[in-house]
Amino acid sequence: xxxxxxxLRKLMVAIGGSPDKFRAKLFPxxxxxxxxxxxxxxxxxxxxxxxxxxxxxxxxxxxxxxxPDALCITQQAVTTCVAWGLFFAxxxxxxxxxxxxxxxxxxxxxxRLTSIGAAYAVSSFCMVIAYGDCSRSVVAMVQDxxxxxxxxxxxxxxxxxxPGIASLTIMGAxxxxxxxxxxxxxxxxxxxxxxxxxxxxxxxxxxxxAQDIIMNRQQQGVMLVDxxxxxxxxxxxxxxxxxxxxLSSHFGRYDLEPYWTPxxxxxxxxxxxxxxxxxxTVTTSYIIKYCGALGFLIVGMLSNLLIVIGTSLSxxxxxxxxHSRFGCLELSGFILASCGIVQYCIIKWHPDCFEPGxxxxxxxxxxxxxxxxxxxxxxxxxxxxxxESHERQHLLDHA
Length: 399
Known about the structure:
This protein has a domain at 28-148 and 188-251 and 258-306. Helices cover 79% and strands 0% of the residues. It has helices at 6-16, 19-26, 34-59, 68-89, 95-102, 107-133, 136-144, 146-157, 165-182, 191-216, 227-249, 257-316, 318-322, 325-349, 359-374, 379-397. Helix 4 packs across helix 12 (257-316), helix 8 packs antiparallel against helix 9 and helix 9 runs antiparallel to helix 14 (325-349).
């Protein structure tokens, strides 16, 4: 019968024994595990971040649309319009927002959501000032400090309880990232730029920690917010504050006319830039939901490392980097930071493998568990197989 699925089903049974076994062979279970989903989110974030950086560089060139403050407003506007458009089209995609929309529960979260949006808007404008007055290396080195600060803060407050070896991996990632950032571009900074960058990172850290609390660690009696609803409810306040800052900086100057002509010519590219910003915002919320504030900072550091090392390799080439002092320093930092990030992720996902005083054996146990998971086996099944083989050998010996 044309269109029938029986031939395909027979083929699946012939190859795998059953459709379920065939799908298990084609798509191993570890590809659909929680760890794999986090990896997919991290990959999406890295790709979207690299694309947004290239889009910003192209759009903000002098001959196109050289207005970073207006681009910030456009990104916030696109994020708000897309999020609320999807909400009115399919409210079930936003569980928390649907409940708050139909009931009077928004007042319990209104202050926090408004604060997050306002802090993110101010942070974006401070970042614009920092990028204008400081070189990329200085900005990146200040951003690198976020990781150890949040790590030791969460450990001190008892939010995360990890083995002591985790602090060594975090410091290795931090030192390696600073080495990469230091060698990326010449050091150039001003006092205003440094102050703006520090203020931007403090506000950004506040936003990240607040999102972690709202989605994962809300107090009793207050509803936990899902990632899509968080983006939906935070976007309007962020757009409002961004617009107010932009208009107040141009109040009484009557200098908005130069903005319109470039925008009319390049609005499709500006809108595409806003869509990329929306993707990054949603991905950020999901990463914070599944990995927490520290996990998001690690993903952000990994993204910066890959972007920087990719840019350096595309400009100078591997051979030139290996034979230059700064190139070797950058490659060494990349290797050190990558190893620190990987080892921390192993500790985070398998904390029960690590016991006090046996960190090396803890890593070996974690590596073994990862290998068994990838190969489709479990430690329990390995023990059962071993016991069955011993029993079979015993019966053969006494037959």
